[in-house]
Amino acid sequence: MAFLPHARRWSVLAVLVACLLLPPRSGALPIATDYAEPEWQICLDRTRQDGENAELADTGNNLGIPDRDQNARKEYEETLKTYRELARKDPETYLPYLAVTLNELGILDSDQNRREDARKEFEEALKIYRELAQKNPETYLPQVAITLNNLGILDGAQNRVNEARKEHEEALKTYRKLAYKDSETYPPYVAMTLDNLALLDSSQNRMKGARKEYEDALKIYHELADKNPEMYLPYVAKTLNNLGMLDRNQSQIAEAVRTYRELAQRDP
To answer: For a Cys staple, 99 with which of 12, 125, 239, 252, CB 3.0–4.6 Å?
Structure first.
């Protein structure tokens, strides 16, 4: 599993599903950023209109994204300090920005193996999102689920298995609830979370649970690939490969290889 670079801001789905495909890197964690790009752009536009301090926070956050060096932490921390001050004066407007920045700093800390710091940041972001979701579930329940996913991955990497399972299971329950209302947007998130649970179960030799989760994820990816093969065939192949490795099923592995060959012909 690998942590995605901060070289540019990814959409939520691209971050969440791409992290499952990247090759392993020691100590790295696949943590997701939490706003889709169009939503984030709206946030930036609103911030620019809200005064000098808000503009400073906006600039600091953007600087933190591409800078993977020592300056990134300083920039995120300055942004966080500014949003805390703004949120004290106007919580309704600025608590979402504070949560975004906490999640971004948690990503950076996870990437740099500062995992206890990352946990505090993710937990604070989750607390904020839960409060926001009570008033506006349609907007903030997805952010609750994404932050739960981040915590679950972090806890899984530190062998806090019970905590990781609870977090992934709550994220899955939330995404299924969202997918029931919006069957176009959220099925990929359901599949991604099923993959996370399957990885956790297979690491604990809970093969029956892992198999069911991979099968459920595979069914969703097949349905998505029927409509959009270019986007979702890679995830069909990945899940087939994981399921084949779990069961030592040569036919599933062979099908995964055939799918990857087809994809490689399209995009070598």
So the answer is: 125
